[in-house]
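User: Quick sanity check before I run a bigger batch. Here is a single chain. Can you write out its predicted 3D structure?
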Amino acid sequence: ETDFCKIISEITKGKVAIIVDKYKSIYLIELDKPKERSLTEPPTSAVLKGPREGFNENIKTNIAVVRKILSTSDLVTEMLTVGRVTTTSVCVMYLKGIAEKTLVKEIINRLKTIDIDGIIDSYYITEFLKPHKASMFKQLGNTEKPDIACAKMLEGRILILVDGSPIAITLPYVIFEDFQAADDYYKISANATFVRMLRIISCFITILLPGLYIAMQLYHYKAIPLKFLITITNSTQGLPLTPVTEILFVLILFEILYEASLRMPQYLGIALSVVGALILGDTAVKAGLISPPAVMIVALSGITLYTIPDQSQQLSILRLMFTLAGSMLGFYGLIILSVFVIMYLNDYDNFRAPYLSPFSPYVKNDIKDALIKQPLIEMKTRPLSFPNKNLRRMKNDKKG
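Assistant: Done. Predicted structure follows.
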């Protein structure tokens, strides 16, 4: 090596520089072997079927794992250094002949323009790459599982690995990716479709249920079945809180319990989330602060929230927004806010991939892996929702 800056950088990373008299080049030898975490199953991506291997914090190990799965000369690896102080290694991986060249160049150029003193985790890269800086919605895909990362590259996506982070970035990203789970592709299609539909239904329950409850209780009580209306009326008599305040109180209490359970040691966190919810909920009902229907509504909304863990924070905020909209304008508030959110998301364009694709715009070819999961033999072409060079996946297919 003759680049003095690169030599200094490699020495700070643990390599040994050997200088030989009368030679201009300096030899760099890697003698250290730092300890690293084993490739265990990621706790946030547990599966019943399929590979259980996950990424760790060593970028060289992660690259090797990807190469083990995609053992082809078409797998391209481009290394970059980001961060003036940390000089963090960043790897861009894609499949030549499948990923769109112009998109790859755009990503690499944007990574080269990042000017910051340090990169500690892949989320730092996400902050610089995402097109809509102030948006609360997820804009780049991420995964801790090599099999998912490789599957996305086979569809034409680009993979970004960051040294020190077990979370890989994938792009372009569309919202329906989060309704797909890793083991969907290792199940019978009918089972995978059923579970995927449950996730979509759970998403709507999470967002709309508290707002619907408030709207029907305040403005549209005639739409409530008589027996349930009598139950609600009897349970809310004498409560010091208004229906809106009651639901908001329980929602915030639920979020506090969840946050506390995350920050505490694992064995204490589970006990806190279960015992705390039972004791606080039961005590609040007996004390006459909240009603049993409110506890039931929030509990159901909370359980369905975590069927889509990657979107849990965004869904929590949307749930509060729809609750307030239902309290102010009833069903009309829910409809107006729904239209606004859909229009807002429809305007998203993440690296030439429409955010709501394949439904807006409608892409018939990609429906087979969105709401439903067709058999693998039927997925003869790659997704059309984002740019890729080679649409054909099977040789006997005439398309593409």
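The beta strands are 16-19, 26-29, 75-82, 88-95, 141-143, 158-162, 168-171, 349-350, 353-354.

User: Great, the batch can go ahead then.
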